[in-house]
Amino acid sequence: MLRTSHVLCRVEDIHETVQNFIELGFEVGWGSDPKKARNALIWFSEGPFIEFFEFPSKLAPLRWPVALRFGRGMGARLHKWSRPGKGWRDLALETDDTDLTATRAELTATGVEVSRIFRNGRTRPDGQRVRYQMLAPSPVELPFVVSSYDPPQRPAEVEHPNGATGIAAIRYGVSRVQRPHFDRCVRPDQWLRPEPALTTGVIGVQLHGLRAELDPAKLHGTVLTPAPIEEPQS
Q1: 113-114/137-138 β-pairing
Q2: Which of 20, 85, 164, 182 lies most in the core, judged by the most C-beta atoms within 10 Å?
Q3: CB neighbour list of residue 56: distance below 8 Å, 6 or more residues apart
């Protein structure tokens, strides 16, 4: 069963981004050795997390060899990540399994076109090797699919100084043209809020517990807002 895994933000300078989000009151973890890292993560005690990634536009031509090896969906995904600009760029869905073979078969059976399985990994700052797998559905506007991390990576304790305790909702625009594809690939879950839009993609993220509005100048194109306070039912 696929569920929301994480929301991805493309940035131009990962080190500046990490510093800005620390200043905004988040606990931010590096994906690998900070000296050469291309990504960083904001975890919560449960639910989806946020990933910032730096992907140089000069790598865009790699879409062609990647497409030849893993399928056009993966090549198109790499091109999407390498496009210039910063802000929300993608959404990942996950399974409980560390292998995506069964998930790929299930998606294919429902009519979703998917790439071949891309097996990848990274080495954390503490030297631990982390492995995971990816699938890229087509069209590229759809969320992509990841396996569970091997070994699991969520920290035992997460406490953000700004009060944020978790993602309350991810607003995700879905165009009329993409809606049939979206419904075949994505199942409802407690975090994802699809809504009609001219283009398909992440619109904004609402956070539980956030005590104040965040300085837009430090958000690197993301839209992060406090979740609305629910009035108690009488």
Answers
A1: antiparallel
A2: 164
A3: 82
